[in-house]
Amino acid sequence: MIVEEFLRYMQAEREASPLTVTTYSDALEDFTLFVKGLDGNMNLEDADSDIIRDWVEDMMDRGYRATNTCKKLSAVKSLFRYALRKGIVTKDPAHNVQGPKKEKTLPVFLKEAEANELFDGLTWDYNNIKDVRARTLLLLLYSTGIRRAEVIALRDQDVSLTNCEMKVTGKRRKQRIVPLGKEIVEALRLYADMRDRDIPAADTTGAFFRNDKGLQMTDAQVYALVRKYLSMVTTQKKRSPHVLRHSFATAMLNHDAKLGSVQKLLGHESLNTTQIYTHVTFEELRKSYTKAHPRA
User: Fold this and answer.
1) Of 114, 192, 252, 255, which residue is the least packed, with the fewest Cβ within 10 Å?
2) Could you give the strand order of the β-sheet that contains 175-179, starting from the edge strand earlier in sequence?
3) Mean pLDDT over all residues of the chain?
4) Residue pLDDT, tens place only, 177-211
5) pLDDT tens digits, residue range 246-277?
């Protein structure tokens, strides 16, 4: 009961995205199964700090990376904070539980040559709605840095090709205005015209990116599309929509954009989150120096 109530709270009052709610739900289901495996009569409210620590260790034993383990622990911490406020528990057993130390990894991104190959080197059929939709979606992710959930949530009324801008709804329903360059405006216009001609809307949501059935594209469909085309231009293992977001930020900083501007475009609440991309550009600089300088 407590889990269902908490997830409703996250969705209705915290306005968490569907992806966040699903992530929390999966984590709490994993924790519930672990607790029930210890004692079938035990409720989550009965769990103490030792049980939560044992669960964290169990996840590590099952091969979870530190980052994923910490994300799941964060969901349990949020659950118990909620339970404490509601008086369901008298103390928060997760408060002092620490997750494993996260690996220090830099964001994966496309090099500019790879991005050029993606948009200009591949053979795109501009008379085929599937090709046009794929290239437009990829170009939008790369040229604006918006998240997968944000591109899925785009509605027709959010995109103004006249004003060369779009309204993006980010995490916790926060909205921001993102400028659109000439190339992406032309791509969006071509896609919208072909979409309206070839893919009639099957619902009333007004989704900007529709699948072949005329419905809003799903997370899985966007992920599969991005992975398919990134596989054609890069050998790196990670080929998710977030790679294009990282590529946008890195390209902006490499071309002298101010960190604060990139922060606003990405929709980051904290400048510290955006700061990671300065490390990416520095690492690229270090590689160039090591490769090129005779005394390096």
Assistant:
1) 255
2) 159-160, 165-169, 175-179
3) 90
4) 999 999 999 999 999 999 999 999 999 999 999 99
5) 999 999 988 888 989 999 999 988 888 888 88
How far is Cα 283 from Cα 296, in angstroms, rounded to an integer? Answer: 14
Query: Is the pTM value of this prediction over 0.85?
Result: no
CB proximity list for 235: less than 8 A, separation 6 or greater: none
Long-range (24+ apart) CB contacts under 8 A made by 9-17 are 9/82, 10/78, 14/172, 15/172, 15/173, 16/172, 17/149, 17/171
Quote the CA–CA distance of 146 and 233 in Å, as a whole number.
21
Residue pointed to by tokens 């622990």? 73
Record the tokens describing residue 15, joined without a space.
């306005």
Name the residues annotated as catalytic: 147, 171, 242, 245, 268, 277
Confidence of residue 118 (pLDDT cuts 50, 70, 90): very high
C-alpha to C-alpha distances, 190 to 73, 131, 186, nearest whole angstrom? 45, 11, 6
Percent of the chain with pLDDT over 70: 94
pLDDT of 265:
92
Query: Mapping DSSP to helix (H, G, I), strand (E, B) and coil, where does residue 168 land?
Result: strand
Q: Which residues contact 97 (CB under 8 A, 6 or more apart)?
A: 49, 52, 53, 56, 73, 77
Is residue 210 within 8 Å of residue 201, measured between CB atoms? yes
Instruction: Say if CB 247 and CB 109 are below 8 A apart.
Output: yes
Phi, psi of 169 (to 5 degrees): -100, 110
Question: Is 132 in contact with 194 (CB distance < 8 Å)?
Answer: yes
SS3 1: coil
3-state secondary structure of 6: helix
Q: How many CB atoms lie within 10 A of CB 69?
A: 21
Instruction: Quick: pLDDT tens for 124-157.
Output: 999 999 999 999 999 999 999 999 999 999 999 9
